[in-house]
Design goal:
single chain, 51 residues, mainly beta, three-stranded antiparallel sheet, two-stranded antiparallel ribbon, 35% strand, globular, Small CPxCG-related zinc finger protein
Length: 51
């Protein structure tokens, strides 16, 4: 998929948006799940890509 058609990832907790893989997103490691995307504003890992 080309970069021009990508949509921002969305934090379902606070509404923060940034492009997937953007440096604004943080990560957290959860041993049973692996590395999760984390919202820099609220710390939530409830993040989705809106396709």
């Amino acid at each position: 998929m080309s970069e021009s058609t990508e949509r921002p990832s969305l934090c379902l907790n606070c509404g923060f948006e940034a492009m997937p893989g953007d440096d604004q997103w943080e990560t957290v490691e959860s041993p049973p799940l692996g590395v999760l995307t984390q919202c820099p504003d609220c710390g939530s890992t409830d993040v989705t890509n809106r396709w």
